Each structure stands twice: as C-alpha cells, then as structure tokens.
Amino acid sequence: MLTLTCPCCGISAEETELAPGGEAHLKRFGPGSSDDEFESYLFARKNPKGVHFERWRHAYGCGKWFLAARDTVTLEVFGTYKAQTPYPTPEIVAAIQAKRPDWKPDWHQPSVNTTTTPAESLTE
Amino acid sequence: MSETGPFRLPRGGRLIDRAYQLPFRFDGRQLRGLQGDTIASALLASGQLMMGRSFKYHRPRGPIASGAEEPNAILGLGQSGRFEPNQRATTTPLVGGMVTNSQNCWPSLNVDVGAVNNLLYRFLPAGFYYKTFIHPRPAWKHLFEPIIRRSAGLGKAPTEADPDTYEQAYDHADLVVVGGGVAGLSAALEAGREGKSVIVLEQTPVFGGRAAVDHADGQARIDALLADLRALPNVTMRRSTMATGLYDHGYLLAREAIADHDPNAGLPRQRLWRIRAGHVVVATGALERPLSFAGNDVPGVMLASAVRDFIVDYGVAPGRSILVVTNNDDAYRTALAALDAGLTVPAVIDARPSATGALPEAVRARGVRVLTGSAIAGVRGGHAVEDVKICSHAGSGDVQEIIPADCVAMSGGWSPVVHLWSHCGGKLNWHDDRAMFAPDLARPPTGHDGRAMATPVGAAAGDLLVGAADEQPLLPVWVMPVNATRKMKFKMWLDFQNDVKVSDVELAAQEGYHSVEHTKRYTTLGMATDQGKVSNINGLAILSKALNQPIPQTGTTTFRPPYTPLTLGTIAAEARGELFQPLRKTPMHNWAEARGAHWEPVGHWRRAYCYLQGAETPHDAVAREIRAVRASVGTLDASTLGKIIVKGPDAGKFLDMMYTGMMSTLPVGKCRYGLICNENGFLNDDGVAARLSEDTWLVHTTTGGADRMHAHMEDWLQCEWWDWKVYTANVTEQWAQVAVVGPKARVLLERLGGMDLSAEALPFMQWAEGEIAGIPARVFRISFSGELSFEVAVPANRGLELWEKLHEAGKDLNVTPYGTEAMHVMRAEKGFIMIGDETDGTVIPQDLGMSWAISKKKTDYIGKRAQERSFMASPDRWKLVGLESVDGRMLPDGVYAVAEGTNANGQRNVQGRVTSTYVSPTLNKPIAMGLVKHGPDRMGEVLEFPVAGAETYKARIVDPVFYDKEGSRANG
Amino acid sequence: MAEALARITQLQDLGMIQIRADLAALGDVIAKAVGVAIPAQTSVSTNGNRSLCWMSHDELLLVLPKPEAVAATAALTDAFGSSHSLALDVSDMRAAFSIDGAKALHVLQKLCPADLASMPQDGMRRTRAAQVACGIWRREGGYVLIGFRSVGDYLRGLLQGAARPGTQLDPR
User: What is the domain count for chain C?
Assistant: First the structure.
C-alpha cells in the first residue's frame, strides 16, 4: 500500500487517504478536434512498465489533486508535484534521471511560453 | 509421575509453572496441563501423541514441530459461536477450561472410516482430482463431488456468529524488528540506542527465540538484552504478535493475540496492527526441515528441534527412547537434551560419512552409539513409533539393524524464514554448501525511495551457525537412503497435511510439470494451512532431482502473506453489526424510524422508502402516500439531495462547462434544471441549480451524486481551469430540506407563516429567502412530482422542528409523509427521468429526448465533443418512450423487447428495454418507461418482452408523460 | 471494570465557518475580521474561544461559539468586499466529539491511519476514522474530532468502541 506526500499540504498520506485519478498530463481535446485527437485524449493510455506520471487526490485530507512520478514496477516514488503544470517539472525529470539514467522524457515541451496551459488555449 | 500426565518430566520446563494446573478437554476427555503449556505440550504430557489425521489419506498424525510451522496438530477450538477450526496446537497457549477437538476424522480419531483412502494410495496419486473424476461428466456432479466435498477441507466452519470482538490499530516507527530472538533483540538495541523509534514483534509469548534451548548461555544473553531494551523509552516490545505480511512502502501487518480463547476477559480477542515501518529488520530465524525416509509421518517422528523444545521448554518427554536421525551437527543437541532429561537415546543415525565435531563427540562421550553413513529404511508402528529399520545411506534400503524406539528426532538441516523478505519482492540465493535459500542482500525488497526496506539478520539471513562456530558442514539429504526404492518413496512424506509424498512430486515431473508453480498446484504441495513451511524446500529439491537440474534453476514458489492464517474477525475488526458501514442519517431520521419508515439504502444514506401504517404492505403504503399527495399535501425528506455552492467571477463560465445547458444566463432568484455529463458524453447527474447572487449559484445534485459531483467540479477546477476564479463548497449536510408537495402545499406553508409564497411572489422555478415558522429558510418552487411543490431548506439542526411543525399544522389537511418510492412513481407518471433508472452510464441526454436541455449556443461543455461521435449521433440509438401494457400486467423491470432474427451467438436480437416500471395508483394502471430503437417514431407499435416462465409481455409505445400532460397541476 | 480509555463527548455548541480564499493575499483580512492569526500549514491557531483550522492552502475552518457564527460570517463577507472569496456558515454540517483522557491517542490510533503521535501540539490533521472523513486537533487533555453530521452515530459508535475499558495499546 503506497504512501505519497501531498505537495499541497506536505502530509505523507497512505493509499487509503488518497483517490487515484489515472494518467497525468492528458491534453484535453474538445469540440473541433479530430476523431484521432479525441480518441487519444479519451482512451489512449500509456500504461508503461516503469516510469509513470499519475493523478492523485488527497481525498481524506486537503482535498487537492496532485501528480506523482513513480515506477510502476518497483513502486519507487520519484516525487510528487502540483497538478497545475502541463508537463512534469524539471525537478521531477532530474529526480527520475538521477535514479533511471537511461530514461528520457517522451514529450516535446514547447521551448517558449511553457506556462501557457491547455485550459487557457481552450477557452480563448 | 506428574499429575499432568505420564510424559511430564519430573524436572525442567522453562516456560511452565508447575504450581498452576489447567484442566481442559480433548475429544471429550478431561485432561490437565500447566500454565505455560501449549495445547500440544499438554496433550503430549498426557500421552496423547496422536492429534489429528491427514487430509487425503486420513493417516494418524502427531505433531512434528513445536511452533508456527506445524502441519499436523491442527485442532478445532471452542464451542458454538466461539468454535474455530484449524488452530495450531503447537502455538495456541493452553487456557483453563479449553475445549479442543481433533479434525478430519470420523467417527473418531482412533477409528476413522476415511482411512480407507490410505489403502488406496496407489490409486490416489498426484493430480488425482484431474485424472480420475473428469469422465463421465454426470459422475463428477452426482457421485465424486459430493463425496469429496464431505471428506475434503480441514475442519468445519462455525455455524454461529462469532461473539468475540476484534480491533485494529495503526502505528508508525523508524524501525520494526520482526522476531524477538538474540538477532532481533540485538538489532533493536542498536537502533534504539541511536534514538530511532523501534517496535519489536515476537510471535510467541516469550522473547528469546531458540537461544535459551540451544545454547548454555542463551538465557543470560537474552536477559541482558531485554534489560537494556526495557530501559529505552523509544523501543516498544510486543509479545504474542505475529507479523503476517510485509507490503509496499514498508506497510507491515501483525496480529496481536490479546485474549485468544479467554473470552471472559472482556477484551478484544485479537488486534491487527497496521504498521508503517521506515525499515524492517527480518529476524525471523530458521525452520528445521524433515528428512524424507519411509514412514517419516508415523506419530512420534518429530523434528529434532521440536523434541528438545518439548523437553526444555515444557518438561515433556516426546518419547522415552529417542532415536536421532540427522545430516548435521545441530541435531546432536537433541540427543544431549534428552540425555540431560534422563531419557534414552539408543543411537544417532547420521547420514554423513563421518561426524567428528564437538557436538557429536559430546554425544559419543555420553555413551551413545553414533552410526555414520547410515539412514532409516523404514519406521514401524501405526499410531506410534515402535521400532526403526536402519540401513546404509548410500544403498537402496537393505536393513542392517532394527532399533526399538518410541520417538524419532529428525533433522534435515535448516531453512531461513524468508517470508517477510520475499513478500514484497526480496530475492533469494541458493547456497549449495548449506543447502538453503537465503536472502540476496543485493536484491532486497525496495520501498518508496527505491532503497532496501528490509534487512535480514541472524538465522533469517542464513547465519545458521550464530553462536556455534565449530559445527561441521551438513550433507544435503533429500531422499534417505540415496537409492531408495519406489515402494519406499510411497511412504516418504513431504507435505504432511496435504499428503504429498516424494513419489507424487516425481510423478508430476515425469508427467511434464516442470515449473515449480505448476507442480505445487498439481500435487497440492505446500497448499495446506501451513503453506508448506516444512515441505517446500524438500519438495523442490526432489523436483529438481527428478528434472535433473540444479535447485536454483527450479526456484521457489511465491511467498504470499499471511505467514500463518488470520481469522476473518481480525480483518473485519470493528466493521460489523451497527458499524459494518457508515449509515448516513438525515435530521429527520429518528422521526421516520418512529413512524414506520421502511428503509431504502441510497449510497450510505438511509431514506424512507415509505412509511408503514399498521399492517399495511409497502405496496399499499406507497399507493396511499401518492393518493394523499395528489389529493392534498405530503412531505418528503429531501435532505439527502446534494447541495454545492459555486461562487466566483468565473462561476457562470464554469457552470456552462459543467452543464449541457446554459447556467450563466440564469437570472438571480431563478432556478433551472440541468444535466451534467462526463467527458464520454454520458449522463452523469441531473438537478436544479439556483442563482443565489450575481456570482453565486447553488447546485442541487442527486442523493448519490453529491460527493461525486463535488469531486468532479474540483477536478476540473484544480487540474484544467486552475486560473478560473471559482470556489466550490459541498454544503449538503448543512441543510435539511423538505419537499412540501400537493395542491394544499401552499395552504400548509402559509399556516406556518413568515414568507409570501403566493404564485405572484414566488412563481414556478424561482426561489426566495426568508423565515418559515421563525426558522431561516430558502424556498425553491420546483417540482419532481408534477404537483404544486415547495422545497424548503433550513439549517440541519432545525430540520426536525420544521418537519414537526408542518405535520402539526397540516393535520386537518391529512398531511402525509411520503417516501422515495412514492416520489419515484409520481415522477414516472410525469415522464421525468431518474438518474440510475433511465441512465446506466451509456445513455446520453439525446437518448432521453432532452435535447431541449442542451445548449446549441455553447461552443463547449463537458461531454459535447463525445456526443458528436458518429455512434452518439446515430439515428439507431435506443430512445426514451412510455410503455403501456396491453393486458394490464405490470412489465417486469429491465426486460428486453425482442426484434426479428438472431445475433452471432444465436440469441434473439433485441430492440429495447424497460428502464422504469410501476403500477400507478393515480391512473390505476401499470406504467413504464423504456429505451427503444427509433422509439419516438414508433408511437402505437406493440413490442414483445419474453420472460422465462411467464406469458410474453406486450406493451404499446406511448408518450412517456402519463399524467397531466399540459403541466397545469404544478401551478396549484 | 476498568475505566474507558477516554471520555467521548459530543460537542453541541460549536459554530463553524468555512472560508475559502487566497490565504497569501487575504490572510491579514481574515485574521483581522475573525480575530485569530492565520494558522501555519496543517495547524490550528487559537485566540480565546475561537480557532482557525488550516484545511487546505485555500481553505480555513473557523470554529467559534455557535451564537457568534452568523455575525462572524457577515463580518468576514464584509471584510472580503469584492475580493474573490467564500465565507459560509456551516455550523450545522458536522458532528464534533471531544476525546479526553490519558489514553485518548490510543482511541484515535485504532481508527486513523495518520501518525497522530507525532502531530505537533498545534497540529490539524485531516484523515479518515475507519470509513469516514474526519479532522483532528488537540485540546486541553485530549483531542477534538469532527466529521459529517450524517455519520455522527457511526463516529460515536467507533469512538466508544475504541475506548472500551482494558483495550489500551500498551505492550502486554
């Protein structure tokens, strides 16, 4: 049974105090998106053996959602971080690579204006 | 001899108190033991060597071990509700007045009919279930299965509720040490002195492990360690607490026996500890292995360590003439202990070519014959050992000598107890020289930080010679003698409880079972209640030999928790009876309870389904309630409805995303019905939202939807639109809500006074704030019944007061409390959908003819893109219609309407199904709703609903609004 | 019969106000309006008979004598003015219990997975008690536990069961 430290309140909570929320960093595709884009958003999940990014809610606690980077095989937790980020933070990436030197990010983070969120782009 | 039995030694027994005798019963016989005895030691002292029968052959069996690994001495304890099957006699402390019974035998332990299986052993080989009983098929069902079911399974399940209580407790520590022997206590002392918080768990009632029995200075060492540890306030020492499993991230479960079989103490019988350990020290010691020689299961053949435990710990002689058979030096300690206790040791049979270590020499010095290069060819005796046939270990069993003895102390070497290490992924290495699997420190179980979360110490780490460095190496012995005949192997037991023998494992290998996991399941090796603690290593050595491969290539089976079985009561703990689940109660719960409420669970809530008067049936009560509401006025406890405040500059924008309809344009003071979908497009919840102020909405959800919808909103706000300025608050329980419904609803509320509730002041779908009967209230003019209806929300602590005032003031109006079923029927009469009836997670609003509740203007809402998928837009989707029975029979719920033809599976095609069905007391006929392919375009068509065992139901497709189609009644 | 591990008493007179706001920006406004300092993360600050409990980084719970709740809610709402915020009188929403006595911690240890033994003196811990959500902080001689009112009977049953005489968690 996992323990994760909620980055929003600093509490180390056990799995029964948390609610899982599936894969993190999904980009929402709404009206106007192609069938392929919508399918990938709604259904396609990585389900990796190894490094994985997940959504968790500190349900029996501060109630906040947060994200966790962990290894699905060894259950090692590389770190937890705020949900309000479109990609794993540089600190998390560094923490993972310190333990898994061969691991490389599989996303292409825009080099500029990384603070623009999917939400903002959607609601314009 | 002692009063507590002919086999109680005149002296010794470090754990017993000879001053306190304890009477107990075994199979109806009155016996006596001593304070400190286990059941096994008390029975042995009384001369009761035979304690049970094996599972398959019903062979007579005595204990072979003295601890948790015991496979044979498994008893039923207690009576009626406190009866518990399959309890280990070797680990259960004796309590005065205890009632114990042998198992797996009928009519009695000594004369057992099932023992006929013993004569048929050639016909009950490995995999006999699979081989024998497959054909003919009916024979399995009618002949074999009933017989096997009766004779299989150890013990009997109790038939009454367990009257004992159990509890659980959580704890946290930097370090948890499992095992209170010298190795564990030393580790605890070291960590304790470093200032760490330490918990030490010892499964037996006594700290010290094997040290006091095996080493002259053992007790002194333990006493010194205990004294030092007790001086450390940061070290917690728990006895009688067995660690059952180690799980992810240092989560350790342990069972503490508090008042086991002492129900009069009024204490919980057991406590399950749920401990989060920073690190775990596995100091669980080692278990001795039996030797595989013919007749090794005859009562009186025991592990050498158990023999000396019974002598030293309990002052009990397992026999008077104890023959020792071994492949190592350690077993010579048993010979010495027996001699010290005044017992006879006719010989030590040592499979090794020579034995010249200090221990063998000490035994020789006491005048005992040591026969090296020797083995046991067979044990004679039925219910007890009579004599032992000796042969050369290198040969095939030619008998050289017969030695009389009533006890055989065997030792095949020791296996580290690696269960906890292995439960969560720790790996093992095979050590050829010591013939054992031991933890591989390079491959430990890892925790949240990726580092080792456990460290093995002492014997559990493979350090078997701790404190005795001068022992000579053992000789691995898997079959004794080496070239034993096939006939001898039929009598060599590996798994004593499940009756798996060397011959079975060899047969399995021959038949192609090369994986140890497959062999385990095929032969049932290690699958009994002892989980193969004494049998597994021997079994996989035999398998390896049969497969002609080294032992590590065969590997071990998976170690799974619990280490020894946990009683279900301990796992459930407080969650039974009233506390089985949290019951959510509204402020009016007790009023309803006192007035005949027939409860319905809705999530964890209890809602009144109806209120029973006198001898009324629920069906009659529902009909009465509906008539009363439609004729005058009724009240519904709607407190369970979800109530979520949504506030902020972006609240309107946010709600437009949550709902399919437009909420941002709702004027302050007004209410609007809305639908909430998930991102799949499927309908998730519905309810009425009210705009409280320019930036504040109150969202009503379904009873079951409150927490879910609040979480749904917070998810989108926190994880997608985190820059939107919106706060939500789930205030469901702050308010009691009463629906006052019926043509006289306004009259009744006006009697309580305080607010203008006229049609002009409070039109339909508006809300107002004020006081009713002096209670602060919000009143919503919304209707789920089609009648004039006011939903009155007041602070929860005043809900009952409002409810009672309504009933006091409305006596002459026949004001009637009504329940959820009346509400359901009335909404169905009006054709209103119910989440969970008309929806099942695959239904979109468009299916329900609710396109009017979907905004065409909005560019986006949760679920909009999904509803544009081709399948969602298909004209062939099943859509909501009313269904009118053609013969006056009520349609069964959930039945399917059949179509022409059959599908690929040969089943009838279907074209619709019933989603709600009732008898309407208002219309005095059955009504139903359903989802039907092209339904709204097929008005008047008759559908067929075949039901097994009944005449096919037929119903006509009609408009789902059965009552008051023009909707005039809602205006009063 | 030995004594129960702790005295379990339902507290009937507590008023509660749920506050949601950007605590960094509006902390001073809140502290001034309610007369209690803003608590540090996962802790409680107290002034007289009022306590501010930290619920999350944008939520506080003001616990105060019930008769003061309506006025305090209004005062907060006034103080916030047009700032994005929420102040709600939720005095009726919860059941609150005191758990008093030398072994009060043992009672909670049987129900809550949180490490309450190492909770600071002014700590506030939200966790679960068996199957329902709860919040816990210390008071003189014991603890306060709050949960939702609908499960008040369940919580009382849990606490009384866990406090049964003779069931202390000390090693035997």
Answer: 2
